[in-house]
Every structure is written in structure tokens, then in C-alpha cells.
Amino acid sequence: MSSQDITVSIENDIILRVTVNRPEKRNALSRTILKNLGEIFDDHSHNENLRVAILSGAGDKSFAAGGDLKDLSVLRTLDDARGLANLAKKALNSVRNFPVPVIAALNGGAMGGGAELAAACDFRISAQHARIGFVQGRLNISTAWGGGVDLMRLVGPSTALDLLCRSSMLTAEEALAIGLIDRIAEDGEELDHCVTNFLQPYLLQVPQVLRAFKALAIGARQGLQRAEMDEIETDKFAGTWVHDDHWAAADNVLAKGK
């Protein structure tokens, strides 16, 4: 499912591309867009051919400028606020729990809720001019969509607390230095080219192996105990071991050794 404000495509049957398409609104996230984003990732989670997903914003100025203040301004009660937080958490959880790696391609600024959306992805790859900031404090509110929790995990509680309290925007270089983003496009390099280079090793893996690795990452993100993580690993290993792809690779290695 998608809306006119979100574009969806699948490249070569293996790459899911999802783009928030509101450049005139700096790709602000309304309740409808959040709901549709979650539904799009849910719908495609069953596509076993996919190897990766790429999430970005339209244009070159904004990945996502945060919540759509005009849309959200009608929410005035505690119940309204809790409802918004729950709706957004559900949508972003669909990104967090997507069964293959999700890359946020930061084509521009990721502010507030946009930074939370970027943090929900497994990796963040940035254009040189892009910035990212958990600036919710500027509106006298706190994080609500799970991004504060993600930030603590990504950069550690002390650094995360400092970023939240400062409510400042970071350059791509500053975000890279603390581990908030994973790669920056080089001088003169298009963001898509940087993302493609980053993903090349991933695309060499078969889908069931990528799903196995992502399942472990999801378990770690959820704070599962060692025994639960061991069970996930064993279950995924068994499935990949008996798969024809494993035996084809093993036979190829054995044949080379003869």
C-alpha cells in the first residue's frame, strides 16, 4: 500500500525503495504518511526475494523534517498524544523489524521525527550536506516514536542524553564521528552511488541468510536474553544449512579443492 506522498519501487526484484515524496513540505510526516509507511513495510515483509530496503526523501533538502505540525496541531489531549506516539511507534517498528537490512539514505536534513525515522533503520548513509538532529526539545517536547531509545543504543546513554538536551543539528561528519551515521558520500559522489557501493556485499548474499542475520539484529535491538538469541541463531542456521543454496556453495568449494 502507498499514497501519493510515498513512492515505492522494487529494483531487480531484490531492492525495495521507499521515498517520502513531499519535497514542498520538506517531507514532513503526517499521521497518514506514518500509517502508510508502516503498511508499506508490512506488505513487503513477505517478499522473500528482497535483500535490502532503502528509505529516503524526495529532493535534496530534506530526508524528513519531522512531524507535520499542521496535521498534528489538532492533537491536544493526553489521549491524543499517546495515540500519536503509539501510531508512530507502530509505523517505525515496521521499519525496525523489517526482515532484511534497511538503509536510510539521508538526502538532506533529518530533524525531530525525521531523525527518529532515520534511527529506526539499520544503517544511515548521508550526502555531505545532510544534517541530523533530535531537536524535539526546541518544541518543548521529548522523543515519542522510539527514536530516543534507538539513539541511546546507537551512541550510548551519555552522548545520547547530551544530544537530546542540546537539541542541535549535527553535520554529517559530526554524526559519523559518534556512530550515528555509517557512511558519507565522497566529494562529487552521488548519494545513490554511495548507497550502491555500501550495499554491494549485501547483494551477494542470498535472501535467507540476510534474513537470518537481521533476525539476530532485531533480537539484540529488543534486548532478548542470551538463551533467546541462541535459539534464534540455531533456528536460522538450521534453515540455511538445509537450503539448496548452501549445498550448491559447499559443492562448489569441494569441487575447487579436488
Main beta sheet, described? 6 strands, mixed
CATH superfamily assignment of the largest domain? 2-enoyl-CoA Hydratase, Chain A, domain 1
Strand adjacency order, main sheet: 1-2-3-5-7-10
Count of DSSP strands: 10
Number of domains: 2
Oligomer class? single chain
CATH class of the largest domain: Alpha Beta
Low-confidence stretches: none
Report the structural category. Answer: alpha/beta
Please write out the topology.
Blueprint: E1 6-11, E2 15-20, H1 31-44, E3 52-57, E4 62-64, H2 69-72, H3 78-96, E5 102-106, E6 109-111, H4 113-120, E7 123-126, E8 131-133, H5 147-155, H6 157-166, E9 170-171, H7 172-177, E10 183-184, H8 191-203, H9 207-221, H10 226-241, H11 244-257
Parallel strand pairs: 2-3, 3-5, 4-6, 5-7, 6-8, 7-10
Antiparallel strand pairs: 1-2, 8-9
Tell me about this structure.
- The structure is a single chain.
- The protein has 258 residues and is of the alpha/beta class.
- It folds into 2 domains: 6-203, 2-enoyl-CoA Hydratase, Chain A, domain 1 (Alpha-Beta Complex), CATH 3.90.226.10; 207-257.
- Helices cover 50% and strands 16% of the residues.
- It has helices at residues 31-44, 69-72, 78-96, 113-120, 147-155, 157-166, 172-177, 191-203, 207-221, 226-241, 244-257, and strands at 6-11, 15-20, 52-57, 62-64, 102-106, 109-111, 123-126, 131-133, 170-171, 183-184.
- The protein has a 6-stranded mixed sheet, sandwiched between helices. A 4-stranded mixed sheet has the order 4-6-8-9.
- Helix 5 crosses helix 6 (157-166).
- The longest helix is centred in the middle third of the chain and has 19 residues, at 78-96.
- The chain is globular, with a radius of gyration of 19 Å.
- 38% of the residues are buried.
